[in-house]
Write a structure and sequence with these properties.
The chain is an alpha/beta fold. Helices cover 48% and strands 17% of the residues.
């Protein structure tokens, strides 16, 4: 599985830290920017780049997006087909989001989530499988139907 990363200036430092963590866990990573700290950058550019990749490779890729609040990245990513992005508030919440909702993009709030907590959230995001029970599949399918209207 390939993990795509994207961040704006607010999330740049945490992105660089988490890229190394994810690589050490044995995952292939691809950074889609920003590649340097730039206070003038705009989060939708990086969220769109990651969401587009994951949208096209949703069966074999995931995305990790980082900005100040996590919300701007999350909103942008969820505009793409096949994307189910969630803003992380805890590892327990992301565990449920992966198991029940099959989220494939994780949005992290760099202004509110310390590195150690972000590391735990990312680990849970990457290791937790979708539960796949009929009721959860049905709900995810309903989301896809709404998306396709």
């Amino acid at each position: 599985m390939i993990i795509y990363f994207g961040s704006d200036h607010k999330g740049f430092k945490l992105k660089e830290y988490l890229k190394n963590f994810v690589r050490e866990q044995g995952y292939e990573i691809m950074d889609l920017g920003n590649f340097k700290y730039d206070e003038e950058d705009d989060y939708p550019d990086f969220a769109a780049a990651v969401a587009k990749k994951v949208s096209l490779e949703f069966d074999k890729a995931r995305g990790i997006l980082i900005c100040g609040s996590g919300v701007g990245m999350d909103v942008t990513a969820n505009k793409f087909p096949n994307i189910r992005s969630a803003v992380a508030i805890s590892s327990d919440q992301i565990y449920d989001a992966r198991r029940d909702d099959d989220v494939n993009v994780l949005s992290i709030a760099a202004d509110f989530i310390p590195e150690a907590d972000a590391e735990k959230i990312v680990k849970v995001f990457l290791e937790t499988p979708f539960r796949g029970e009929e009721r959860f599949k049905r709900r995810v399918e309903k989301i896809s139907e709404i998306e396709n209207k």
